Amino acid sequence: MTDKSQPTKFELPKNPVLLERWCLTILESLERFWGEDLPMWREIVLITCDVNWKNKYRLQARKELLHDINEYAMESMNQQALQMLNLKLRQEFGFDLNDFSNRNNKRIQNILKRGVIRNEEEFRLVSDKVEEIYADDSQKELVSKLNDLLGTFENI
C-alpha cells in the first residue's frame, strides 16, 4: 500500500508506475462490470505509462489518461460497482475517484472566481463540467457562466 498522504494522488501523472497500477485497477473493475475485456484501453494505459515512452507531451498525455479513465468509470458503472471500486482504490492507494471529482469542483470554483480560463487543461476541465451538467435545469445559470468562460478562451 502506498503512503496515504494527499500529495500522492496529485503526483499520479508524474509517476508512470503508480499511474499504471491505478489505471489497471480501474480497468479490471470495468471489465468485471461489463463482462468483457477492454484491450484498447489496456494498450493505451501500457503505452502511456511506459517509463521509456519518448513523447515530449507525455505528462499531458498521462494527465489526460488519468482524467479519461476516472471519468469513464464514474459515468459507466452503477453505484454499487463504483462503491466497490472506490473501496478497492482507497485500500490500495489511500484515495478514490471521489477525491478527483472533489478536486475538480474546487478548481472550477477557482476558475469562476478568477473569471478566466488560463490554459487548455482548465478549458477541458470546464468543458467536461458543462457536458456533465448541461441537462440539469437547476444548473442552467452555472452552465451559462461556464460557457461564457469557454467562449472567451476560444476567442483569445
H/I helix tally:
8
Query: Average pLDDT, to the nearest integer?
Result: 88
- Rough outline: globular
N-to-C span: 45 Å
Class by helix and strand content? Answer: mainly alpha
Residue share in β-strands: under 5%
How large is the radius of gyration? 17 Å
Number of strands: 0
Order of helices and strands: HHHHHHHH
Helix content: over 70%
Sheet bearing the most strands, described?
none
- pLDDT < 50 stretches: 1-5
Brief sketch in words of this structure:
The protein has 156 residues and is mainly alpha-helical. It has helices at 7-11, 16-34, 39-48, 58-76, 79-93, 97-114, 120-133, 140-154. Mean pLDDT is 88; it is low at 1-5.
Question: What does this entry look like structurally?
Answer:
The protein is mostly helical. Helices cover 74% and strands 0% of the residues. It contains 8 helices and no strands. The chain is globular.
Give the helices and strands, then pairings.
Blueprint: H1 7-11, H2 16-34, H3 39-48, H4 58-76, H5 79-93, H6 97-114, H7 120-133, H8 140-154
Helix pairs in contact: 2-3, 2-4, 2-5, 6-7, 7-8
Question: Which labels suit this protein?
Answer:
156 residues; mainly alpha; 74% helix; globular
